[in-house]
């Protein structure tokens, strides 16, 4: 979701809470702050800690110091004693950790908390800010001096001196200093920056940093800024407010406002929703000119600029320069080159058919949209009338992103177009409008509000509350009376589901119940979300204890707290909105809490999502919310479908309509009579992701697959697909019925039990992909070639017709006695190479080295070192990743042997010559990720067939009834490329398959093609 920070993410998470909750009583009045502390006990504790600090050694001082920070000030005599005896000793302790702890406590206790600050504390922090140890300086500056509200000239001078001391201190010191100086008058900061600007000739680096500090603190330029015009360079970051549909669109804007003299070096990367530009700007004047140029352009307002000045360190310059040489990124599964003239794209959008319009919307760079708004809208209007809903959906998104979202007021034609598309019969078009356009309109007219309400109450997207939530957020500024008038007809209507959605929408938008809410009694249960501001609470128990200061268990019995990423968050369930508002108001006055601004209505979708959130770190959850697990198969399968729809990243890449999958499979849950039948239904759903990494695992129930008779027995041979697209024998097991019967390598299977080989393979593939996911059809065919001759019963006779390499026919009747087993990954055995080994190497004829990488393991760099060392002097190198089953690796270290430009680890063996990389359909996952570096850098020529196209980061989901777990990909992996590897894989530069005659003669066609190519160089 665009623009929402972490708090908003947590709000969505804890919006999804149990529907079955106990009623809670109206809260009694409570004070607006936590219960008062025991002053006598605090004073005694301060005195006790003072004595302990005087007597303690370094380690114990580190332990005792932090507690004093949170205790109130003691008596004047006691504080005098601290400054006379304790703090000087801690500040002079030989252990820098003690000095850092003392600086933190002194800063927090006497500088940040007091105005004016205690002058004794200021003096100590000034001294510690000049400490030789970096952690001590950091504590004194960040926890103390920077947080003084009214800073003296001495403090301002010290902060600026520290800020200009080291260009590498940006994140840890300079940023907090700049924030602290933003509280000081600009003329005061200017006085202390001036000495550094005046000495720009003698110390240009410090002058540049001083200029940077002033600009970042005051958001203006210092007097006489032109003196540093020639200093630099800087890093500037921009992104596009209205997210570009593709890289060429973004580049059209970049090239328009970023002429080479102002920023000769820049990089572009594609975020999830926007394009980001990072530019090296040579000096202060170029930066100033660039900002002025941007502000003067019509489309400049579409660029969001990071106004913070960042001085480019040598490391930054090196990185941006290196990144600028990389290929431009793309967000989609296919590259988006500009393959047609822009006039042709305009014609396609205006008068073309659906395919042409779809291509134009995806691939054109829209210069008309950038410079001629009306002409661009004309094209989108034409596309919005297309018969293909996919074209209308793309038009709806572009109209919303470019002309509604970030425009106030929105362009009237774009808004009218969005309202028209909001009535589209296709739900995905309506959802696109309701997400990207309508909720972004400020002060929306009734027509916009009506369209939002209709979308949110009639659409049921599988993202839990995605559309509902964004609509409620967009309606929050509508007067409750106006909103209730518009929603009442739906709340009183005959459609029960729409009425429930309308009730929830009103409550979550307005924060109150509508008149006569009795119809929705079961929904009158509300969640108040709360969290820790600035990580004030480290554990769920700390958050719960603090919350209970305001809401004792007898008044709010149902509360849940949980770890959430690196934060902790919680939710309380109440049945009285007035009580919830009262609690919300009081929590907001406590600076320790971050609180949701609207109640959340409980519904079944939120129940499912809350279980998911709790399941992320179940060991850390503390919950008294009554949430019985759903016992039925229906609920568990529905929630599995919703979760997969929520997290799986590749639906668009694969063209999967997940709603349609749900419509097909969800009704079948009511027909399941046993756990095994339900398990198979779950497997079918997971398989519909068409993903080789997605799989069903046992939970409280065993896997259901033994209940199906899968074919698993064969006579003792395996096939691959040859260059004539036939299944050809490449492996015969020794001592098997196949060997005894005369089956030879190189024979092509013509038929199996009277069925043509192609039909037999198709039948095997159909059964497998019903229950197991395959990321690509080619990977499925690879497996089918090995398994399509298998039978369900051991010993069953299989009738085979085959043709040898010379075209002679053969017939066999062989018993299928061998069970599933490891089959060689290499098409032809290579003497001295273990087919099952992780990394194997051998020197071939003609000084060609050969490295077989069967798996990608963490020790891959060490194994590659050993392989290259064993090969010695070689002119050419073949790397074989055929059959690679993946694993995990250090991306840089694992390719360093072959990267001549990588200066790290110079002692490791390096190979700088030509490389041939052999690939096939069984190279998968991390194997593809590792091989992608050779593709991205063009370091090798690829021979063979396209890889599996299965590469992603994964998570594990437990079904709500606990019966099964599901491994599900959650992020498409790109490896070293600028596109996902999923589905598409890595294509060979030289497509080549094994030849039957070569196999019969023991020759590896692919390896021989690579060798011949290398020898010709």
TrEMBL record:
SMART domains given in the database record: TSPc
Start and end residues of each Tail specific protease domain: 825-993
Region (Disordered): 320-339
A GO term, aspect molecular function: endopeptidase activity
One of the protein's GO biological processes: signal transduction
This protein's record includes keyword Signal: yes
One Gene Ontology cellular component annotation held by this UniProt entry: outer membrane-bounded periplasmic space
Signal peptide: 1-29
InterPro entries (alphabetical): ARM-like, ARM-type_fold, ClpP/crotonase-like_dom_sf, PDZ_sf, Tail-specific_protease
Swiss-Prot/TrEMBL keywords: Signal
PANTHER family found in the cross-reference section: CARBOXY-TERMINAL PROCESSING PROTEASE CTPA, TAIL-SPECIFIC PROTEASE
Record-given protein name: Tail specific protease domain-containing protein
């Amino acid at each position: 979701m665009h623009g929402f920070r972490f708090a908003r993410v947590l709000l969505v998470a804890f919006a999804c809470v149990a529907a079955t909750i106990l009623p809670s009583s109206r809260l009694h009045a409570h004070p607006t702050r936590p219960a008062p502390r025991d002053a006598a006990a605090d004073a005694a504790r301060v005195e006790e800690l003072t004595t302990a600090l005087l007597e303690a050694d370094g380690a114990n001082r580190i332990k005792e110091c932090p507690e004093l920070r949170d205790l109130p000030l003691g008596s004047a005599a006691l504080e005098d004693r601290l400054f006379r005896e304790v703090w000087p000793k801690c500040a002079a302790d030989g252990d820098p950790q003690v000095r850092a702890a003392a600086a933190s406590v002194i800063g927090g206790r006497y500088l940040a908390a007091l105005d004016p600050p205690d002058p004794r504390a200021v003096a100590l922090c000034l001294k510690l800010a000049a400490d030789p140890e970096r952690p001590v300086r950091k504590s004194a500056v960040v926890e103390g001096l920077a947080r003084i509200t009214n800073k003296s000239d001495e403090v301002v001078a010290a902060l600026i001196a520290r800020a200009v001391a080291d260009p590498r201190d940006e994140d840890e010191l300079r940023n907090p200093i700049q924030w602290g100086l933003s509280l000081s008058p600009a003329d005061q900061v200017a006085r202390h920056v001036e000495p550094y600007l005046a000495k720009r000739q003698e110390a240009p680096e410090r002058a540049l940093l001083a200029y940077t500090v002033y600009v970042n603190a005051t958001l203006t330029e210092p007097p006489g800024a032109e003196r540093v015009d020639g200093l630099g360079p800087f890093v500037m970051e921009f992104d596009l407010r209205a997210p570009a549909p593709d890289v060429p669109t973004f580049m059209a804007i970049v090239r328009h406002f970023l002429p080479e003299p102002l920023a000769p070096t820049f990089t572009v990367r594609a975020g999830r929703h926007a394009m980001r530009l990072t530019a090296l700007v040579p000096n202060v004047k170029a930066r100033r000119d660039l900002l002025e140029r941007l502000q003067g352009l019509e489309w400049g307002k579409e660029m969001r600029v990071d106004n913070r000045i960042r001085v480019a360190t040598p490391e930054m310059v090196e990185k941006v320069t290196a990144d600028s040489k990389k290929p431009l990124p793309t967000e989609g599964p296919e590259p988006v080159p500009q393959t047609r003239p822009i006039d042709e794209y305009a014609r396609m959008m205006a008068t073309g058919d659906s395919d042409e319009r779809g291509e134009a919307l995806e691939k054109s760079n829209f210069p008309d949209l950038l410079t001629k708004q009306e002409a661009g809208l004309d094209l989108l209007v034409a596309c919005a009338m297309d018969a293909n809903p996919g074209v209308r959906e793309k038009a709806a998104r572009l109209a919303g992103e470019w002309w509604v979202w970030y425009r106030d007021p929105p362009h009237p034609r774009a808004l009218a177009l969005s309202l028209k598309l909001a009535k589209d019969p296709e739900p995905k078009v309506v959802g696109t409008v309701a997400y990207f356009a309508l909720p972004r309109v400020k002060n929306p007219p009734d027509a916009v509000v009506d369209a939002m309400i209709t979308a949110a109450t009639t659409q049921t997207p599988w993202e839990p509350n995605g559309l509902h939530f964004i609509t409620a957020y967009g309606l929050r500024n509508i007067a409750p009376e106006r909103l209730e008038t518009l929603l009442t007809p739906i709340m009183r209507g005959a459609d029960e589901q729409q009425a429930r959605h309308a009730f929830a929408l009103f409550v979550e938008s307005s924060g109150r119940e509508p008149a006569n809410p009795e119809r929705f009694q079961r929904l009158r249960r509300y969640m108040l979300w709360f969290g820790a501001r600035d990580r004030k609470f480290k554990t769920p128990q700390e958050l719960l204890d603090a919350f209970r200061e305001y809401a004792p268990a007898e008044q709010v019995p149902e509360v849940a707290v949980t770890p959430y990423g690196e934060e902790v968050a919680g939710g309380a369930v109440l049945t009285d909105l007035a009580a919830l508002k009262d609690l919300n108001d009081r929590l907001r006055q406590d600076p320790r809490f971050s609180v949701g601004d609207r109640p959340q209505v409980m519904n079944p979708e939120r129940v499912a999502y809350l279980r998911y959130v709790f399941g992320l770190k179940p060991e850390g959850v503390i919950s008294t919310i009554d949430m019985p697990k759903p016992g039925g198969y229906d609920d568990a399968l529905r929630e599995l479908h919703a979760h997969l729809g929520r997290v799986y990243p590749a639906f668009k890449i694969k063209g999967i309509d997940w709603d349609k999958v749900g419509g097909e499979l969800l009704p079948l849950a009511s027909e399941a009579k046993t756990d095994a039948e339900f398990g198979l239904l779950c497997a079918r759903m997971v398989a519909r992701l068409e993903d080789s990494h997605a799989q069903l695992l046992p939970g409280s129930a065993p896997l259901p697959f033994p209940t199906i008779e899968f074919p698993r027995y064969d006579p003792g041979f395996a096939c691959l697909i040859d260059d004539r697209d036939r299944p050809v024998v490449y492996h015969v097991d020794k001592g098997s019925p196949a060997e005894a019967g005369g089956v030879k390598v190189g024979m092509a299977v013509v038929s199996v039990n009277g069925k043509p080989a192609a039909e037999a393979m198709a039948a095997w593939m159909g059964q497998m992909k019903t229950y197991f996911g395959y990321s690509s059809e080619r990977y499925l065919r690879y497996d089918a070639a090995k398994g399509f001759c298998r039978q369900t019963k051991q010993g069953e006779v299989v009738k085979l017709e085959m043709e040898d390499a010379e075209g002679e026919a053969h017939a066999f009747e062989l018993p299928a006695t061998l069970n599933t087993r490891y089959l060689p990954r290499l098409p032809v055995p290579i003497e001295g190479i273990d087919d099952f080994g992780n990394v194997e190497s051998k020197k071939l004829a003609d000084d060609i080295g050969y490295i077989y990488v069967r798996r990608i393991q963490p020790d891959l760099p060490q194994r590659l070192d050993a392989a290259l060392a064993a090969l010695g002097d070689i002119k050419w190198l073949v790397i074989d990743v055929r059959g690679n089953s993946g694993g995990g690796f250090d991306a840089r270290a694992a390719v360093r042997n072959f990267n001549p430009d990588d200066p790290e680890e110079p002692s490791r063996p390096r190979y700088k010559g030509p490389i041939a990389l052999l690939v096939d359909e069984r190279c998968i996952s991390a194997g593809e990720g590792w091989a992608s570096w050779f593709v991205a850098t063009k370091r090798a020529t690829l021979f063979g067939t396209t890889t599996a196209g299965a590469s992603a980061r994964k998570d594990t989901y437990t079904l709500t009834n606990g019966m099964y777990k599901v491994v599900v990909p959650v992020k498409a992996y790109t490896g070293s490329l600028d596109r996902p590897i999923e589905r598409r894989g890595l294509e060979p530069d030289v497509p080549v398959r094994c030849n039957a005659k070569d196999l019969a003669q023991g020759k590896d066609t692919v390896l021989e093609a690579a060798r011949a190519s290398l020898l010709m160089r």
